[in-house]
Write a structure and sequence with these properties.
Distance between the termini: 28 Å
Strand content: 35-45%
Number of helices: 5
Radius of gyration: 14 Å
Shape: globular
Order of helices and strands: EHHHEEEHEHEE
Helix content: 25-40%
Strand order of the largest sheet: 1-2-3-4-5-7-6
Amino acid sequence: MKIRNYNKSDLPVILKLFYDTVHIVNIKDYDMQQVNAWAPKKIDEAAWDRSLSSSFCLVASIDKKIVGFGNIYEDGYLDRLYVHHAYQRQGIGNMLCDELEKHCQKKIYVHASTTALPFFKMRGYKIVKKQEVFRRGCFMINWLMEKD
């Protein structure tokens, strides 16, 4: 596996990976209306590229196939961490998260999905609070978590 910095040419594959992961993996903890609100078919590609480009963003690949990505901001906000549904539980998320955490010298915080909650707990993140968020006309639960 190779971990490298994000490149704008990665965006189409990253967006598909994000959509597929939410609809295939997160559906176990969220209903269809919620996953559609979280990961809609039509997504603002320019906004995603701005977000990924303005943060420290890493891409994991195996045999040149993108299998995961994540990004963190200088203020410690770990915004995204997604692993392709067919490559989960192989250590890819941990490797990406290790590199993202090393990059940040501040307290790290994340808005973890219910699906990702056990992953972040295992990594030493503590729950600050349970949150009900509103996305595209739909309420869903996530968890504010921190790690020193």
